[in-house]
Amino acid sequence: MSEVLLVEIDFNDQTWYLSEEGFIGDNYYAPYLASSPELELGQIKGGYISVRIGNISIANRANDRSSPFSIFGGGYSKLISNPTTKIPIRIYWEQNQKSESIFTGTMYLQSFDVDKLDFIIEDDFEDVDLLDSVEDIKSDLTEISTISIKGLGVVSGDNLAEVLAPDHGLSTGDRINVINSSIANFNTPEGSTLGDRRPITKVDDNFFRYKLDTATTSTQPSGVYSLKRLQKKSVPFSFGKVTREKGLIQTEDGTEGTRGFAYANPQLKIASDFSGTLVPIQLFDDGVLVGSNDTNQVKRTLPSGGVNLTGISVSYDVITITTSAAHGLIAGDVIQLTGATPAVINNNDIMTGYVVIDAPSTTTFNIFNNAEFSDTPSVSSATITHQGEYFGSGRLPTAETIFSRSTDNTTSTTDGTVLLGTALVSGESKNGSTIADFFAFIANKLNIPSVDFSQAPNASLVNLQLWETRQTKVLDFAGELAISANYLFEIRNDIIKVIDRGFEPVDFIQIANYDIISVSYKMPNPIKAIRSSWNVNVVNATQIPAQLDEREESVMITNLQSGEIRDITYSTKDIEDQRSILNSIKLVLNKPVITVDIGGIRSDIKVGNRIKFNREEDGVTVDMNVKTINFRFDNLQTQVAGDGIIKLIEQDDVY
């Protein structure tokens, strides 16, 4: 039986075939491996499975014309001059004339001496930023390094100037401000025809253009004028349903074009994205609802349309009003109450009206009033006026922007209101709502064409609620989310393979006891409970105007009478959904971890596989799911580790 390690690398515009002792197959694999590589696959970033340990040594034969790193072909100079260059590598295991792929990735130089070149092996995947960025209208202006501004005269009807700024980093639509130019045409003063912050058109990485109020063909070198740009900030990432979340990036302040505020849309669905029931986008000013794309949020009065006021009750300082049919009010709505008795519970000014604390049902809602009275309250002759928070047809949200409410939401006016406090938003993300949607989003973000859910059949049933305002990398974020939701994933051959840690595949690999070199068993640490916590923003209607309070919520699952309390990052702010996730994690944490050394290089075993074996020496039978694989090419062994179930071998014979 022939067993040989084969390595292929792409370097210096050529594929090189390497082995330890030389091998002739479809190609000749030259004996340039200085030693057997070390390769371990497992979790490296939360639930992300990749190379945990990986290195390979190649003989340093710079004077050998057949070496990939020869001085004669320029390979040695290219490698030493660019040590961080990622070199594509493929590792195969040849056994009984059958070649099995072990790993495909990249390597880069770590160190070298006269005998060998040592390389680090890693996945060939390029991570990207999770959050997109937009200009923040509230940010400070930042100076751009330029060489000159040149007037182009009139081009296609526009007065244009062209700026030479090597590697300026701007994109079309980004806004700049120019001051102190001795050629006044180049300046963008406040109150000018086109405004003081003007959008640019990118020509290439070194040139961009902007419009002038008055044309010129003059040229001004740098050092005289000051050219600045608006800073860009990261737009929050949303997933699932979000409720009153902070961190919106303001893109308009009403000083240019139409009046009113506007914010970058954090990927929330707009009305046209829904085929069924609308989950409205709601904009809050601290605790007050100031915008909604729900067309029912228009100015109206109650009683009307079959909705009558049927009851009122008081519990301490909270007044509960009951209606005969659905009132359509939500937390944060502002209402005016008139005609109720006693008179002290009325509020005759809509500008300082009652803020709805919450709506326990479709026919009840709560408001706050701490006035003293002894008479039995009544709303039999009362009227409730709801000003309405509909954005208005002229300021409805778009895929890119959430505008503040129109100054008159019954018309198509494009002028909007201003917000005095912190802007918050509610809605439903267009990025998806389930684990399956999440990994489809990750695949799209990383340009991966396919996702394999064969080992995560319930991924479409697990709901998530995420809101991230910190810039991070996609794989880091996905790894953290995966492990907190009890999932793993790996990327191989342009496929994301998703693994449910609690899923037990029907198929399994049986390992014969005579193939096993050693086994160790690690019992789970005692865990008293598993807990997740998060913060929510709630309306505090006891203040005028209403404020927003941050409140911590949590869910905890009891496990044992003693041990540690294990904190798990939340995956959803829905208490029951998070409880379900914690229960699934508990089942995994209560399993022992089994590590087994198997003779031979077992390229057929993958992370996520289920394996079974009887260990007669220990008197047990093991059923486990593989989470880590270590290929030990130097002594022809494969070590696998994972959680599983250990049972005693039943003895039927009497000796």
Overall number of strands: 49
Specify the structural class. Answer: mainly beta
Low-confidence stretches: none
The global form is flat
Strand content: 35-45%
Quaternary state of this entry equals single chain
> Which CATH architecture of the largest domain is right?
Beta Barrel
- Overall number of domains: 6
CATH C-level label of the largest domain: Mainly Beta
| Number of H/I helices | 4
Largest pleated sheet: 17 strands, mixed
Q: Please give the share of residues in helix.
A: under 10%
Overall pLDDT level:
91
Describe the fold and architecture.
With 655 residues, this protein is mainly β. It folds into 6 domains: 3-122, Thrombin, subunit H, CATH 2.40.10; 140-230, Elongation Factor Tu (Ef-tu), domain 3 (Beta Barrel), CATH 2.40.30; 241-295 and 391-428, no CATH class; 300-386, Elongation Factor Tu (Ef-tu), domain 3; 509-524 and 591-648; 527-589, no CATH class. The chain has 4 helices and 49 strands. Strand 27 (309-315) and strand 28 (318-323) form a beta hairpin.
